[in-house]
Amino acid sequence: MVRLAAAGRSETVPSVVRYTETPPARVVSLNLCADQLLLALADRGQIASLSPLSRDEDYSFLAGLVDDLPVNGGTGEEILVGEADLVLSGRYGTRVKRELLERHGVELMVLDPWRDIAGGREQLRAVAARLGHPERGAALAAEIEAALARTRGIARRPATALILYRRGYVPGERSLVGELLGHMGLQPMQARLGLTQGGLVRLEQLVMDPPDFVVMDEADARAIDNGTAFLVHPALARVLPPERRLFLSDRLTICGGPSTPAAIEALAAEVRAKVNGER
C-alpha cells in the first residue's frame, strides 16, 4: 500500500493502491464518511454503490441525495462481482475486505478520519482529483475556509470547553471539533483532567472541576440508555445546565467533509448565544 502522507504532513491524505490517472467509472464506498465524499465530489453516474448507512438520516449528512443509488452489503466478494474500478474505504474495521480487494488488483483509496482542517483539506483535494473533479474539492475547501473566516475568535470572553460524549467519553486534544473550539477562542479542558489523549472522565471529576461549557449532541440530553444517563445525571445537570451546553449534532461531526461548513456555523451559533450571550 502506497502511503501518500510524507513525514510532517497530515495523516488524513488517503493511501492509494494501484493508482491510475483515468477517472473511474464505477466507484464503491464502504463506509459512511466515504459515502459523503462520493456524493459530494463524484458524478452521479460514477457511483456504483454506497454503504448501508448512506441512507440513515440520523448519521448521513447527505442522505437526501442518495435516492435510488444502489447500496452495497459491504462484502469484498460483492464488490468484486460488481467490477468496481475504485473503492473508497475507511481505515478501521475493513482490513479483511481491503486485503481481499488488494489481492484481486482493485484500486483502493483508504480514508483516515479528519483530525484537523489542514489534513481534511488535503483529503478533499486528493479524492476529488482521483474522481476527475478537482474543482469540486477546491470549491468545498473554499466553503470551509469561508466559514472559518466568519467565525475566527468569535468568543468574547475566556472560557474552557470540553467535548463530551456518551458514558463520559472525552476525545483527545487533537480532533476536528477541538480545533474549531480553539479557532473560535475557547480553551481545551482535557489537560486539566489528565485526558490529553482522550478517555473516560469520572462524574466526580466533572462535578468538582467543571469546564465553563461542554460540547455535546442535543439528542444525548435525554436518558434513553446507560450511555446517555451519564450526561443527564442530576449532579452534572446542576453544574452544567443547558445554558452551559453547546449543542452540536453528531450528524455534522461524525465525518469531515461536506458537513464541515454546517458544523462550523452550528457551533458558532451556540458560541454566540451561550458564551457571548447574543440573542
Automatic annotation (TrEMBL):
Superkingdom in the source lineage: Bacteria
Record-annotated Fe/B12 periplasmic-binding domain positions: 27-231
UniProt name for this protein: ABC-type Fe3+-hydroxamate transport system, periplasmic component
